[in-house]
């Protein structure tokens, strides 16, 4: 067997240009699909990280009450129950944030902008203060209870600056219209997709506008040190909360995205509040992964597309490999006859050509991975900026690539298998040559 391996390597090196072209075609296919699948993995990782940082959490708890009219009220009043739940789940020392939110119409000198505003406790949200940067103003200028921090794009649309006062129209949690006033204390860099989704103000003031008490809130976020543990932690929190209060739960058949591909798992969970009736406060527990499950579907589609691309490329490439090996066998007919005359058995002749094809495939695969690594490294250096629509999918304006080991392993096996299959028929034909007939060949 060792001699066959050495002979296979020698034969590939004899026709360097031919081997280079065939291996290069294989490498190109591997490079393309590796970049696509790694980019898909990076997209999911970046979306999860960006949303977790912007909304300050990986696992979330929300409370819902039913009003006498049947309206859903997003509110958490019993902070003691939540604290007991976190202690029971072993998260007493975890970094948590308690926030409220509202859809607000900001008005300044006749111009209007629809803006989602988040009420936060600036004294306690250390990570927010560390991550948010400002073009003008900053958290140190939040000297008034109605301080507001908006993005540069929103500031440009309203033509406002630090110190300006804005009129605000919103609704309370019970649906009543209310009016307030904000003072601009800081302007953040544009956040692309998030420009009209994120603006910050003190939670106590926003609560006064939407009809909540000073210590009440709508959402609690738990920031974890390891994102991969979010689902496990969420189950622990849910179990601890179920022992103390009613909790929304999806039926097993609705957990998969396939049951309704147009909705994320969080949207399906939120739907339950519109369908069910209860007394008091009912809670839902979800993770950052539940909010981006639609993006996970996109990644699955990208992985499927990459595999289809690989198959199509290799159908084309394998036709070339099949024809090339036919030519190789025609050119080496006398050589085959000589080897057979010297005692090389039919299976050995067949295995020799199959080994050549396998080594050619493996060499192409390694070259493809190396090329993909270089391409991904170069692409990751490009700064696309943070003010674009695609900022959500990038890390500080840069693309990220996370290799998908299972997907890459499948691609390698597929490439080697298809290459060997392409070489099998010519190899079998070579093995059937009679030594005398092969030696009489003019080639």
Task: Give a written overview of the molecule.
The chain is 51% helix and 17% strand. Strands 1, 2, 3, 4, 5, 6, 7, 8, 9, 10 and 11 form an 11-stranded mixed beta sheet that branches. The two termini are 27 Å apart. It has 14 helices and 11 strands. α2 runs antiparallel to α10 (293-331) and α10 runs parallel beside α13 (405-431). It folds into 2 domains: 2-51 and 294-439, no CATH class; 56-292, no CATH class. The model has no long low-confidence stretch (mean pLDDT 83). By secondary structure, the chain is α+β, with helices and mostly antiparallel strands. The chain is elongated.
Q: Name the beta content range.
A: 15-25%
Structural class: alpha+beta
Instruction: List low-confidence stretches.
Output: none
In total, the number of strands is 11
Task: Specify the overall morphology.
Answer: elongated
What share of residues is helical?
40-55%
* Biggest sheet layout: 11 strands, mixed
Q: What is the alpha-carbon Rg in Å?
A: 31 Å
For the termini, the CA-CA separation is: 27 Å
**Helical element count?**
14
The tally of domains stands at: 2
Tell me the series of helices and strands, N- to C-terminal.
HHEEHEEHEEHEEEHEHHEHHHHHH
Round the mean pLDDT to the nearest integer and report it.
Answer: 83
């Amino acid at each position: 067997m060792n001699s066959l391996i050495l002979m296979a390597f020698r034969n590939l090196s004899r026709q360097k240009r031919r081997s280079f072209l065939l291996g290069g075609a294989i490498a190109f296919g591997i490079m393309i699909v590796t970049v696509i699948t790694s980019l898909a993995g990076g997209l999911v990782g970046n979306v999860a990280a960006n949303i977790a940082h912007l909304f300050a959490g990986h696992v979330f708890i929300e409370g819902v009450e039913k009003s006498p009219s049947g309206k859903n009220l997003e509110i958490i009043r019993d902070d003691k129950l939540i604290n007991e739940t976190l202690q029971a789940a072993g998260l007493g020392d975890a970094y948590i944030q308690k926030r409220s939110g509202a859809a607000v119409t900001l008005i300044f000198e006749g111009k209007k902008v629809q803006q989602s505003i988040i009420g936060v406790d600036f004294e306690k949200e250390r990570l927010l203060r560390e991550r948010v940067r400002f073009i003008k103003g900053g958290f140190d200028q939040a000297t008034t209870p109605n301080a507001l921090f908006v993005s540069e794009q929103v500031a440009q649309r309203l033509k406002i600056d630090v110190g300006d006062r804005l009129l605000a129209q919103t609704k309370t949690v019970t649906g009543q219209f209310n009016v307030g006033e904000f003072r601009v204390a800081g302007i953040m860099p544009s956040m692309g997709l998030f420009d009209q989704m994120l603006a910050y103000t003190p939670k106590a003031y926003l609560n006064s506008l939407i009809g909540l008490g000073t210590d009440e809130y709508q959402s609690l976020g738990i920031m974890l040190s390891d994102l991969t543990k979010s689902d496990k932690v969420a189950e622990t929190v849910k179990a601890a909360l179920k022992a103390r209060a009613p909790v929304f739960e999806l039926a097993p058949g609705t957990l998969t995205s396939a049951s309704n591909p147009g909705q994320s798992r969080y949207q399906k969970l939120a739907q339950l509040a519109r369908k069910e009736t209860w007394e008091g406060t009912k809670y839902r527990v979800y993770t950052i992964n539940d909010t981006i499950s639609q993006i996970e579907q996109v990644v699955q589609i990208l992985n499927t597309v990459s595999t289809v691309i690989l198959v199509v490329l290799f159908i084309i490439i394998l036709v070339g490999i099949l024809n090339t090996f036919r030519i190789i066998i025609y050119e080496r007919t006398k050589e085959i006859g000589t080897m057979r005359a010297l005692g090389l058995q039919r299976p050995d002749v067949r295995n020799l050509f199959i080994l050549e094809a396998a080594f050619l495939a493996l060499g192409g695969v390694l070259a493809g991975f190396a090329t993909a690594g270089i391409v991904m490294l170069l692409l990751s250096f490009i700064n696309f900026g943070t003010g674009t629509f695609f900022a959500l999918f990038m890390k500080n304006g840069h693309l990220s690539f996370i290799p998908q080991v299972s997907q890459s392993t499948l691609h390698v096996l597929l490439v080697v298998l298809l290459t060997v299959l392409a070489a099998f028929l010519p190899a079998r034909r070579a093995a059937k040559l009679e030594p005398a007939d092969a030696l009489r060949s003019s080639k």
